[in-house]
Automatic annotation (TrEMBL):
Keyword Iron-sulfur: yes
Name of the protein in question: Aldehyde oxidoreductase iron-sulfur-binding subunit PaoA
EC number: 1.2.99.6
GO CC list: periplasmic space
PROSITE patterns listed in its UniProt record: 2FE2S_FER_1 (PS00197), 2FE2S_FER_2 (PS51085), TAT (PS51318)
Domain 2Fe-2S ferredoxin-type: residue ranges: 44-120
Species annotation: Asticcacaulis endophyticus
Amino acid sequence: MASPIDISPNRRDLLITAGAAAALSSAATATTAQTADLSQPVISKISFSVNGADQALELDLRTTLLDALREHLHLTGTKKGCDHGQCGACTVMVNGKRINSCLSLAVMHDGDEITTIEGLGTPDKLHPMQAAFIKHDGYQCGYCTPGQICSAVAVLEEIKAGIPSHVSDDLTATPQVSAHEMRERMSGNICRCGAYSNIIDAMSEVAGATA
């Protein structure tokens, strides 16, 4: 007759089981703590200049520059269109260069100088580009217009600075102010009303060129 199998736990098995249980408990606690931390926003102080005025904010690290301008500083001229960097409605200038503010976190711009459509001109004293857009009917519904104007101002500065584009004839020479150059550089700003030719006319007048 076969002897009965001894199924009573031994000291080694108990230690292994206890160790595994402790490790699982520790991992679960860490996961719970991490989840709890992620559920709380991380706030950071940030300071930058917007349209010549110093601004100090305390923002969630996930706040985009677009939302900081619109929701915290109430500068609603900058528009939220696609919120994916594909339409250009949110274009502003940072240190003189145009960016899609919906794709940039506000905390990345500590100490920067930011210009929105409100900082280019006022109804009583329009920026030349704003006046040209009005003269040449460079807008229709107007939703994309703030981004179009900010981008147009920056585009002329890019050309003036000698920065080439994909359509520049000579990458080592100063690009010419032409309709071809301006259309290429403005291609990231979508106008669903289709005022593109009028926008080029407005930019050409400001640049002193003929479209």
